[in-house]
Amino acid sequence: MNITRKAEFYLILITLIWGGTFVSIKVALDYVSPLLLMGIRFSSAFIFFLILNPVKLSALNKNLLLKGLFLGILMYLGYGLQTVGLNYTSASRSGFITYFYALLTPLFQFLILKKKPRAANLLGLVIAFAGLTLITGGLGGGTLSKGDLITLVSAASFSIYIVCLNLWSPGEDAGALTALQLLVTSLIAFASSPVFETPFINSSFLLWGNMLFLSLLGSVVAVYVMTRFQNSITPTRAAILYSLEPVFSAILAVIILREHFSPLQLGGAVLIISGVLLSEILEVRRSSAPGISDTEGPAVSGGIASPAAASMEE
What we know:
Layout: H1 3-28, H2 34-52, H3 62-85, H4 91-98, H5 101-113, H6 119-135, H7 146-168, H8 174-196, H9 205-229, H10 235-242, H11 244-256, H12 263-287
Helix pairs in contact: 1-4, 1-9, 1-10, 1-11, 2-3, 2-8, 2-9, 3-7, 3-8, 4-7, 4-11, 5-7, 6-12, 10-12
């Protein structure tokens, strides 16, 4: 197997894992409150990450600590809102709505970096919002549920996170910055749990099995694989492969959770993916033109974005 095929295989595997995290969180929420789940997930991921990638204390400095703190807060908002949202919406809908981060990122690049979104970004956003209308039953008088709205805000948080990550990660120790984010996210989750919810946990094999999947496979291993193999394929192929994540989340939700996906919702899902791919692939082709260079953030959704993975040229 050549390196390109090998990279594609492993990237498809991690998108399958990330798609599975939506189902895994949905199952785990029957046994633990959302923010406590986050605290356990990210503290475990922090420990696993340090075991697999020891951080040199010499890499730590005031500037890095401040960046890690702020990025950790944004990561907490993204994953915290996503986890809370899953209490009120289906895993399949959460997967597709979270995927909006890819379309919202150019808008926040404009607000934060004054980088104007291009026509392809705006067209993709319009198409995807049409898909969101179908998924949430808007044509039949339905509206975004509480969980859908929370998840949409989560997607916006991920977008801001990606913009800030790309702004602050260059020149920093990727391992140290990732570890700091995991630590900050877990500490805030544990601290905020008794404030915003009534913490509970009902220990079971199913709970801890899902926690292991979320923290080890869905976080640390996925980040390593993405960092290791993403640069071995073209940005266009990477964008297409990452678009499989919400597809996998929907398929697994239907199989494992017995969630229902109507033909209208299926059409909405196709529009969302089409909107994202239109935006990203046209952007890739434009950036590949002579004299044009641009970068976009890493994939981030069910998994954890890594500064080391923020190198996909778009």
